[in-house]
Amino acid sequence: MIDYRSKTLDELEQLIRSWGEAAFRAKQLFKWLWKPGLSDFHDITDLPKALRERLALEGFLYRLDMAGMAASRSDNTCKWAFRLFDGKIIETVLIPGSNHTTLCVSSQAGCAMGCRFCKTGTMGFSRNLLPSEIVGQVLSVMEQTEQEIWPRNLVFMGMGEPLANFENVVSAIKILTHQLGLNFSTRRVTVSTCGLVPEIVRLGRTTSAGLAISLHATTDELRNRLMPVNKRYPLKQLMEACRKFEMPRRRRITFEYIVLGGINHSRQDAKRMARLLNGIPSKINLIPYNKVNGISFREPTNQELHSFQEHLAKKGFTAIIRKSRGKDIEAACGQLWSKINKKIVNDKKLSMAILD
Ligand code: SAH
Ligand code: SF4
């Protein structure tokens, strides 16, 4: 059976042509596939009946099954848990802002990278998500929210390492940014990676999506301990890949830096960071570590955070402190795969607002 929602427009055209139909039929179909609400081929009224029947016979419209939803009382952040066809659970977080809403999507069920501070990292890897499962998160959220808060920014910062699922993530980006698809601006789609060097360079050549690097340490010694991927691609190689990363003019690479209390925020760290980022058009986001149960790092104090920010400012960098959102529903970075999932596993019937 064909998963139509995993196909880019080019792939749909190939398929439709191979059925002896005109290519413009693929455009019509593609447009419908990404209209919130479509669940039956028979509703695609501008396609001939015979084609609709063939579509229904040979393939399906993959829809994610909502397993749970929770809304933060303090800051309007919403988190959804979706159940995939094989029972795996993934999470998606909607973060309303004053000007625009950001959606944080998952790219894998679990993650194989094993970063020491990350909840997803502790659960191991299940599988890559299909393009239809990645874009499906966006479509499902649109179907369940008012148009005024539909997301304008998309970040691949949910569960999983997007560049370890390269082909499917690139197909998803093509669908998300196509005018007839979900029509996101490529400037508003950001892929976050722990640092898979060959794929970083490939991403720059294949799409114009933005890049965020999870840096988190300024020496190989510490980064090896925090992020096993650093043993494969140490800082020197990572920075070379960033320098090679092709991006439109005036774009910058975002460097994410979790501030781990007492560990990675000294003046020396600021100095080394300045040296590492030298010559790379960059912006720095400081993320206070979110406490994860069972992991022994501590959250930074306000004083630690601000003094690190000042050390960076003295080196000429404006670093923005990213306040955690949705903490009360465990929607903050690195906390996905949380209470909500355990509850779902225990009680399959449970659906809405299960944290209450
Ligand atoms: N795998 C990708 C994207 C998903 S993780 C990556 O690592 O970049 C998204 C972001 O959340 C990353 O910057 C990650 O380092 C951060 N993160 C993970 N656990 C965290 C925690 N406990 N506190 C704060 N940020 C965390
Ligand atoms: Fe995977 Fe990113 Fe978590 Fe590391 S931080 S384990 S790469 S999801």
Biggest β-sheet strands, sense, barrel: 10 strands, mixed
Low-pLDDT stretches: 339-356
Helical stretch tally: 13
CATH fold name of the largest domain: TIM Barrel
Distance between the termini: 39 Å
What series of H and E elements makes up the topology? Answer: EHHHEEEEEEHEHEHEHEHHHEHEHEH
CATH architecture tag of the largest domain:
Alpha-Beta Barrel
**What's the number of domains?**
2
CATH class of the largest domain: Alpha Beta
CATH superfamily of the largest domain: Aldolase class I
Please bin the fraction of helical residues. Answer: 25-40%
Concise structural overview:
The protein is 35% helix and 19% strand. It is of the alpha/beta class and 356 residues long.
Write a structural description.
- The chain is of the alpha/beta class and 356 residues long.
- It folds into two domains: 2-60, DNA polymerase, domain 1 (Orthogonal Bundle), CATH 1.10.150; 65-344, Aldolase class I (TIM Barrel, Alpha-Beta Barrel).
- 35% of the residues lie in helices and 19% in strands.
- It is built from 13 helices and 14 strands.
- The chain has helices spanning 9-18, 24-33, 49-58, 119-123, 131-144, 166-177, 197-206, 220-226, 229-232, 235-244, 267-277, 302-314, 339-346, and strands spanning 2-3, 59-60, 65-71, 78-83, 89-96, 101-104, 108-110, 125-128, 153-156, 189-193, 210-214, 253-259, 282-288, 319-321.
- The strands form three sheets. A ten-stranded mixed sheet has the order 3-4-5-6-9-10-11-12-13-14, sandwiched between helices.
- α1 packs across α2 (24-33).
- The longest helix is centred in the middle third of the chain and has 14 residues, at 131-144.
- It binds S-adenosyl-L-homocysteine and iron/sulfur cluster.
- S-adenosyl-L-homocysteine (SAH) is lined by residues 117-118, 157, 161, 192-194, 214, 256, 258, 287, 289-290, 292, 333-334.
